[in-house]
Amino acid sequence: MAAAPDSFGDGKDAFRWRINLEEVFTVQSCYYRFFSKLSGPPIIANVVKASTYIWKVQAPTKTLFFGWRLIHDRLATKDQLYKKGILDFTEMNCVFCSVEEERLSHLLGGCQVVKEIWLKVLEWLGFITDFSLVDFITFPFIYDKVNSLAKRKIIGAIWLATCWHIWLICNAIIFKNEKFSFLDCMSEIMFSSWKWLLSSGKIANNCNFLVWRLLPLTCFE
Ligand SMILES: [Zn+2]
Fold it and tell me: What does pTM read for this prediction?
């Protein structure tokens, strides 16, 4: 019988973990090795920042999930439904202005009708140094621009309530044939944000709805 070639050696067969220098299996080395394959395209840093922040907003869980989906552009807006073949291109018009195509950026301030809501809510918030309409609309991405933690909590809840009610009205117009009412929308935003913050103890107990409607930023403890 021919001798085995020297290169095979005399040792027993064994598995080797060649992903790290120590050649020892660790969950961490496995995670780093496969992360790029498992996680899909890299998420830009400010989306990570905003989607981490959203879970700190004082609101019901279903609304927080809505906020998370909004940040990741995963709401069923008409442009998304068109891409999936659910809507025809003739059905793409925004229900608020009936002029432009409904997409997330349009619903959150690009639309002239919706922009009026954002402007009114910002006016209700009152003056905040170096805080523009764009800052308000993109609040989860720039929340650390507001130094006061108490103000952040209030603005965060009001931001989410604004997005939430714009979205609910949009769906009510489409599916229930309801009419858009600017005043009703403002009342819903004010009431929801007040209710969320009050139930979580983030605003003063003596902050009744009347005070909240007048000066929301004075209501924190
Ligand atoms: Zn529009």
Answer: 0.78
